[in-house]
Amino acid sequence: MIQDYVMFTGVNILLAWSVYIILMSGSLSFANGAFMLIGAYVSGVLTVKFGVPLLVAAPLAGAATFLFGVLVGFPALRTRGIYLILVTVGIAVSVRGVVESIAYVGGVQGFGGMSGGNPWHIVALVIAVGAALWVVSRSPLQRILDAVREDELAARSLGINVVHVKLTCFGIGAGLAAVAGSFYAHYMLHVTPDGFGILVSVYIVLYVVLGGTNNLWGSALGAAIMTLLPELVRGVAQWRPTVFGLTIIALLLLRPDGLLAFRIPTVRLRGRSRPSRHDAARNVATPEQW
Amino acid sequence: MLLEQIINGIVLGSMYALIAQGYTLVFGVLDKLNFAHSEIFMLGGFLAVASVALGAPLPVAFLVTGGISGLLGLIVEVVGFRKFRSRDAHITAALSSFAIGLVMIDLAQKIWGTEAVAIALPDEMRIASIEILGIRIVLVKLAILALSLALVLVLHLVVVRTGLGRSIRAVAESAADAALYGVNVTRVTQLVFFIASALAGVAGMALAIRTGYANTETGFSFGLKALAIMAIGGMGDLRGAFLGGLLVGVLEALAFQWALGQLADVAVWLFMIFVLLVRPQGLFGAAGAKDTRA
What we know:
The complex is a heterodimer. By secondary structure, chain A is mostly helical. Chain A has 14 helices and 2 strands. Chain A has a domain at about 1-195. In chain A, about 75% of the residues lie in helices and about 0% in strands. Chain B is mainly α. Chain B has a domain at about 20-215. Chain B is globular. The chains are: A mainly alpha, B mainly alpha.
């Protein structure tokens, strides 16, 4: 039991971070469940059919999914941010459909025979990824990410290659989700494409929103709460989507533009002297407020 | 047989087109994706089941379903979009509308269960058919097709010919400029949500009548596909959404004919990704064409 809790909480924290990394650069991905599926299947095929050890197969699956993410993300990012959201929905639906039609990996029945998934691998990975993200948050790299997210035009004028930054983040997020999927699959012993539908991807994104998007601990906390709460409180399990959905809506409403409000500490330090661009846009859009 | 499948495809496509009109209307005006739209379509099926079960004749049931769906659309606008108007908030709006969709699915499952619910229409009505030029056509399909085409035509006329349509197009062009010219942007946005959601509800009812059942899964399996169709037709392009719907419907029916049903679902999304990559303005639109945008 306790092993299950550790495993699922750890996997969900890693998945939440995989979305958080993409969000840091100002993109949104509804495809991380699909990336997880790719990781689970690639590593599963490697360990079961080719006898590769899991600790080698998981990074390989992550690298393959990183490349996949970069390939599909590049053209979409080149055009407009909102296209990437649509493309990720498309990936989420089609990856599942394609895997379901490949007989080599069991089709709709799913793929089994993996073994050796250990919760402590996940714990170690959570600690390692958390440490890496923390180091990044203290480094100049974080300021580059902040610039890209808050104002692409300004970032570009500072010589930052916006597409490059966004694409790297998208690829790393995809790769991390795939690694999490590898360990998850080897713990579950058997996986089906059905288990990685678009709802899974949506839930991962909502973990991050619930926990707070402006630091990496928030995402981890959101994932942990949403994994453990339904297990421990039966009423929540039954009404999970409604409770979850209403909480998210309330959160977004009480902090308008909450998702993009990364600069809370800055605002506190400098005071609200500078009216933000967002407020200006809102005022123009609603003449009743004048 | 082939011709019959093509007709099936056009009927299917007309339902896709109805839903896609709603996606594209909202996208055109707000520049945001409304992920709750597919669930309003799903609820439309259940509203139809409920109103028919209460003994409402079909035309009344259509009005009730469309009306209530439209009102639900207003709720979606107030809760999910009103506060997230700035151009940068498209991620937030996508999330809030997705959250609303989740709540709708869950509540529908709590009320009607997770199994498909049959619509209480006599079978004779559902399978009555006529023969035209040697092809048997189920009357209900013809009625659905006629209704969809009529609704799309009315919508087109409203958007292109009326003062209201001019305000919608003005807001789509630039909300700030429209406001300066005295257009009530909030009112127009609400109206667009009402129209879009009413169309989705009617499409949901049409699907329930056509298949005989309402199902809580249709939002993701059927309704979300209209989102891909909207992107294929060109985001914000009403005519493109309509043509794209018909095209995908026919292709899907043909795929079904050749026993490729499973792959047809995937093909739509792959095609959408392809279109977004090489022709972001949509399959039918010219680059930068503004006149067909709603």
